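The data are set out underneath:

___
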Amino acid sequence: MYFSSCVKMNVFIASVFFFWILAVCLPFPLHPKITVGTVWKRSSASLLNKLKYMQSFFNLEGNGKMTSETFELMKQPRCGVPDMAEYHFFPRKIKWPMLDLTYRIVNYTLDLSWEEVDQAMHEAFQVWSDVTPLHFTRIFNGTADIMISFESKEHGDIVPFDGPLGQLAHAFPPGDNIGGDVHFDDDETWTSDSTDFNLFVVAAHEFGHILGLHHSSDPEALMYPLYTYRGLKEFVLPEDDVEGIQALYGPKKRTSSAIIPQRCDPNFSADAVADIHGDKIIFKDIFVWHHNYQMIHEDWMVIDSVWPELPNFQIDAAYYSPEKNLLFLFRGKRYWALRDYKLLSGYPQKLYNLGFPSYVQRIDAAFYDAHAGFLLLFVLSCSYDERFHSIEHGYPKQIKEEFHGIIHKVDAAYHFIRYGCHISLTHCLLWSSFCQKLKVNAGFQKSGNKIWDC
């Protein structure tokens, strides 16, 4: 149930605490074996324990005492599903017995067009189907596994809504009857941007619950209880959520219909390129190609056939450090280190270990200049000093500030030793920039397939 109300400052703290605990820590009878009487049986000691748990969950101090920090947290919009997976009414690892699920949008909010609502729901389901074998099919009549509706106040499921700025939505775990259903509070203002409450963000979180996920204590996770607007452009499901949902349903299976890239395609655009002693390792979708000037392995290889320890997914960025003899691969908010085609222990690690702020969801490209000991990672053209494990002073910068002439998003980059220049593959074009000036050589703009000597 997405997000308890934002209380006003003039409400007595004791009242706020009592009702917040009732709304958040008191589980609703979602499991048919639990009676209403069992669910609502509580004592003052129980409420105190719930406050202690809540403070521990959000890494707050207080030991059960109402602090100003705790009070401020209680005012934030949040999901109303309890934070404890140990609640006995919510069985561990509850999941759907099938992978093909149907959904139906029963009615619509007036805040958005039907097309905007349809798109938000489709994209919210796709967040989960992109990383699992789950498949969601929309139906327009009859009873679906997942019934989606906009409701107001009392609406027949013993969990009434409370008007604007209260609970935004609630969801029920996998099961028959009401199980798997999602209700959105129609008294809220729903949007498709960062104002008020973004329907895609709320729906994606709630769909996690209807698939069997509990809350995560990772502040970067989609399943974190507190509502946070997330940029929708190129949204990447955080790794914590990926691990959680794949623990229930497994990873997305590779299909034989994957399109094998054509190396001399004039529209070719690499996902990542790494230079290892003059050889290029080129990544595209779930494939990798080893290219050198004496010999070219003509066939693309599937990534997990080369590195079985790696999940079989698209690589965002890659670079090789000759000093460490390590190949670094980036995907989402995690990165891997490999030596001689073997994964190092202790990996994957998270981007924030490199000093990146929490809002960085992925690395777009990377190249490493071994002569200068300089690593440039492209997000907003962030420079990372590998020697000091920190973001270099003055960064991040806009790419166009650092490389005059490049105005597009960078897809991949590498240090091309033969010409002593950096190559950035952006929108299927090559750009050359010398280390000292970091200026684009306009005369070097070429088609992306030139990395193959086509």
Observations:
- DSSP finds nine helices and 24 strands in the chain.
- The longest helix spans residues 114-129.
